[in-house]
Design brief:
With about 100 residues, the protein is mostly helical. The protein contains four helices and no strands.
């Protein structure tokens, strides 16, 4: 339940800065953002064996992510996508 309260607060923060998302869009962006944050945090801290695999096969280095730039990219993509969906829904609703 604490996580739900945090999510409600995050959605409100998103909506305050991007009011065009509306309440539903801000909630979707918040949920997707929370999932991505957890996934990127875990992925950006590879185990010793994964680091060894990266060293052994440099082609695998494409999977290595730095948390902050990857998070900025992911959240930007999520927000742009939700905004585009919101705009498309608003356009459809008006016609």
């Amino acid at each position: 339940r604490a996580g739900l309260a945090d999510l409600v607060e995050l959605a409100e923060l998103i909506r305050r800065h991007l009011p065009e998302l509306g309440v539903d869009g801000a909630r979707r962006a918040g949920v997707l953002g929370a999932v991505i944050i957890g996934a990127l945090w875990t992925h950006s801290r590879p185990s010793d064996s994964v680091l060894a695999a990266y060293r052994a096969d440099p082609m695998l280095a494409v999977f290595r992510l730095d948390f902050t730039p990857a998070l900025v990219d992911a959240l930007t993509t999520i927000l742009c996508g939700v905004l585009a969906q919101s705009n498309a829904s608003n356009t459809t609703a008006r016609t």
